């Protein structure tokens, strides 16, 4: 018989793994050990109180053939549980089958199990920006992903997840175990983002864990947690929409370009480049939108420049040129700017990332001309 383990942590989700665990125990007579880092009561997200059979310091992970990681609505307690992460690390380069669903693949990322492996997960995509140990390039937007000795899944595909694990382990489950196939879903249906308010609340909670790690001199290299620099995907998508709309209206054929500015008051300003027979009189595409914001004394928070070569060409983001970067610096170095990317994906970064050695670093903020509300 094979040996199975289910890891326990606060707010673990039973619903996402019971198709798998009940099949193992009821259909195939397998025994499952429920393991945690501490010998205490753990409460599932639906209120079930569970006491582990064993604790991580008393056993070896390599004694198991399959380790199952349930999802959790709040992954931070497990993510910062050093004993749990160390237990998982001891399974690296082994033949253990790791089966992680919903948010739990982040635990495999932190422990190194997912290094170099394709995976999926049901957590919010902002986590890939916050935690550097997540290999974002290996994230696959599918319901179930299987790579080497790791099976990962999104929570809504708990049946497919169970079936994939059971078949991988050689159990005969027939052909009617599943319903709708995960491949029937489009990528945007499998991509999740927090609302701005929920994301802010998460970052605030994360700071507490970050401070705790500071005290042990084991600080993770988190992304900047300044709420001002937090990416707002709704704003970014609306700026892109407005730029495309203006280009198609102002330049229906041939080349086209548009600039979009967003302000702290929630306003959007757009502009195009100024044409002139004298090239030295031409202004950058986004300059007009900056001037509009300045005219109304509104603080600029985001800037984008979008172009296309002709009406049949794809749209491309242009990073702000040096002069526009100097103009934007008036509103501070944390202004979010759209930048050119190799895969033409939409990416905003703080202005400071484009200017790490800017001359203004030699002066105090109050010594420079800057925005005043």
Provide keyphrases for this structure:
single chain; 373 residues; alpha/beta; Rossmann fold; Cytidine Deaminase, domain 2; 3 domains; seven-stranded mixed β-sheet; six-stranded mixed β-sheet; elongated; coiled coil; hydrolase; Cytidine_deaminase-like
Q: SSE layout and pairings?
A:
Elements: E1 4-7, H1 18-27, E2 32-36, E3 42-43, E4 49-50, E5 54-55, E6 66-69, H2 76-79, H3 82-89, E7 97-101, H4 105-111, H5 126-130, E8 144-147, E9 150-153, H6 158-168, H7 196-215, H8 233-250, E10 256-263, E11 268-271, H9 287-295, E12 300-308, E13 316-317, H10 322-328, E14 336-338, E15 348-350, H11 351-354
Describe the structure.
This protein has 373 residues and is an alpha/beta fold. It has helices at residues 18-27, 76-79, 82-89, 105-111, 126-130, 158-168, 196-215, 233-250, 287-295, 322-328, 351-354, and strands spanning 4-7, 32-36, 42-43, 49-50, 54-55, 66-69, 97-101, 144-147, 150-153, 256-263, 268-271, 300-308, 316-317, 336-338, 348-350. The chain folds into three domains: 4-190, Class I glutamine amidotransferase (GATase) domain (Rossmann fold, 3-Layer(aba) Sandwich); 196-228, no CATH class; 231-367, 3-Layer(aba) Sandwich (Cytidine Deaminase, domain 2). It has a seven-stranded mixed beta sheet with strand order 5-2-1-6-7-9-8. Strands 10, 11, 12, 13, 14 and 15 form a six-stranded mixed beta sheet that branches. Strands 3-4 form a two-stranded antiparallel sheet. Helix 1 (18-27) packs across helix 6 (158-168) and helix 3 (82-89) packs across helix 4 (105-111). The longest helix is centred in the middle third of the chain and has 20 residues, at 196-215. The chain is elongated, with a radius of gyration of 25 Å. InterPro entries: Class_I_gatase-like (IPR029062), Cytidine_deaminase-like (IPR016193), DJ-1/PfpI (IPR002818). It holds the Pfam family DJ-1_PfpI. GO terms for molecular function: cytidine deaminase activity.
